[in-house]
Write a structure and sequence with these properties.
The structure is a single chain. The chain is built from 18 helices and 14 strands. By secondary structure, it is of the alpha/beta class. It folds into two domains: 198 residues, Hen1, N-terminal domain (c-terminal autoproteolytic domain of nucleoporin nup98, 2-Layer Sandwich); 195 residues, Vaccinia Virus protein VP39 (Rossmann fold). Strands 2-3-4-1-5-7-6 form a seven-stranded antiparallel β-sheet. Helix 4 packs antiparallel against helix 8 and helix 10 packs antiparallel against helix 11. The N and C termini lie far apart (74 Å). The protein binds S-adenosyl-L-homocysteine. The site of S-adenosyl-L-homocysteine has 16 residues, from loops.
Length: 481
Amino acid sequence: MTSVLGQTEWMLLTVATTHQPATDLGYLLHKHPDRVQHFEQSFGTATVFYPEASNERCTVALMLDVDPVRLARSRGKGSPDFSLAQYVNDRPYAASSLLAVALAKVFSTARSGRGGSRQELADRPIPLEVNIPVLPCRGGPPIAHRLFEPLGWTVDALPVPLDEGFPEWGGSRYVRLRLAGQVRLADALNQLHVLLPVLDESKHYWQGPDEVDKLMRSGDAWLPTHPEREFITHRYLGRAGTLRREALARLAELGDDLADEVAPVEDEEVQQPVEKRLPLNAQRHAAVYQVLLGAGAQSVIDLGCGSGQLLDRLVKTAAFSRVAGSDVSARSLQHAAARLRLEQMSERQADRVQLFHSALTYEDDRFAGFDAAVLMEVVEHIDPSRLEALERVVWGAARPRVVVVTTPNSEYNVMYEGLTGMRHPDHRFEWTRSEFAEWSEHVAAAYGYTVQRRGVGEVDETLGAPTQMAIFTWQEGRDER
Ligand code: SAH
């Protein structure tokens, strides 16, 4: 392959595991190890096969054969792959971007974390080795280290010589990449989906707003906390400054640990003070924490606890004698358990803490018996038709003395320059202040609570604060249970 540098017509990526039985890889990828499968793409053919499949080690290969003629045909303006047009204009094509597109399509189920009969395995890190013999990498091996090492990979990136016969000609812009680590398979696939084009800096073709959604979907488990998230966003979204700002605003909303400031994005367009908004997540946690302390709550349940950032804070506070978290996402709960170091906790500590898997739209006895419940940035993830069920479950059945709810203030969204839709692709709605007021008054009245509202984050005189919070307090004497 090195002899055709610059006009590479095919690319190869392999993923191997030594988890035993290694052939479980086939279940995780939803691709049978005994079969060679072809997947036609608008720009060529992706082939999946297993060069080895034993109990000890199993390797899957994804080979992409780019068909320049088909690729050129997909350039028409009305064609679904119009966005690929620039691959053709810019240089023959950016093969690594096409490889990333093919990988995303061919392994879409595995990427979403669904492991079928091997769900338990799909949910946890396993020993993985990724090999890409020839990969365009602008900036050379140091860039590969910067991008993959923070994700837990051991990186081996060797420059590919321009011509093996003439080492004095130096390196090409290609590397041979090998990654080894204990990584969840879905995470590895999503990381490759984003980072292959980032290494190549090849995504500077026409960008639609859904590019940001794609980045969020593939990146949500690892990008918000990646130290190079800005660089990645920058390269992934190319010169589209507005999209970059939208992406950074959304990452800030997602990011668990983004209390630190991010430098403003360099751009030819007018600068928005992006960095001001980033501590919002931290401000929200602090505000909720203060309310819980102020309310004298001793036992707290965090409903939709996500990766457990608030729980971590609560567990470290002696005033809270019992702390629980629940979420509908098993994956989030694993992150929470890891964050809290549940397994290393002393028995006495562990007795204070409980994590469990549950959906908020179904009654569950385990939600009851707490002084306070938190629904931080959760209600907007619930389908409007299921909100009533959640209200019944939380205010009706679990009935804690205090319920703290936070949710975005949609009026404030205009402050996020470039944000066209909602703040997160999974949001089912975002409320204005009056909508939130109406909903919270209705819930309070229906279940015998009083409610107070306030803003969290920097207040804009006309738009209000970016986050809105409601504190429901159960009115003594009116409990009808
Ligand atoms: N409270 C956390 C996470 C907010 S993200 C924080 O503020 O950082 C929203 C969370 O709600 C996700 O973890 C999601 O899995 C969870 N969630 C969404 N729908 C849910 C449902 N029906 N039942 C329980 N949790 C749900």
